[in-house]
# Entry
Amino acid sequence: MNPILRQFFIIFTTLLTLTVNALANILPLNGLTTGEISDSFQVYFVPAGYVFSIWGLIYIGLIAFTIYQALPSERNNSRLARIGGWVILANLANAAWIFFWHYLLFPLTLVAMLVLLAALIMIYLALKATRSAASPREHWLVQLPFSIYLGWITVATVANVNSLLDYLNWNQFGISAAAWMGIILAVVAALAWIMSLRERDAAYLAVLLWALAGIGIKFPQEGFVTIATWAAFGLVALAFVWAMYARRTTPGLGKGWG
# Structure
């Protein structure tokens, strides 16, 4: 893609994403807020409302990246060129998810979420492959924002799958909702340790901690679910500590979060 066109489409789709997300709750779209729809599902894997404020941090990071990549001096930056198309796809998938969610097209929300997750994974892998070439400025304006974004969309994908299954009246293989939540939490904790051992990505892990704390706070007296949630939080906290330690002791990784 032509570098100028790439810069333009990233700016355009970022503005589109921000506008759609703002209108979703200002209007709101279809007369429903994003949170109201989320709360309509009878599932445990959903955090307290305040946790969704992380979208503010994600969008600040996305705006910072968009401005940075639009600079004339970065027009021919090969690292940015590698991820440009995936950023555009992620922005379009994000905006599409909002429309599908607010108009209650839940099977399509999962399609959009999986596209968004896949695009962010491709961005993450592309940045990882060229990490040694990243400047300190790129660490803060490119690497870190997408680590946080991927962390949250990992959580959101799990929540989206859970909500869709509830919508489809799935019986969870006949096991209880609490037991199913325990399985989900075990998967999240395992994923956290994989990211800690392989990537030492503390920013990604911090997002998982933020989400798990929000779930624990939302369900403070749910017996096994509450205990399992805080146990998973503890396991992810250990993974976070290990990632921070490994980054400080492994040559070439630096001392940052992402």
User: Anything to note?
Assistant: The radius of gyration is 19 Å. Residues 110 and 160 are 6 Å apart (CA to CA).
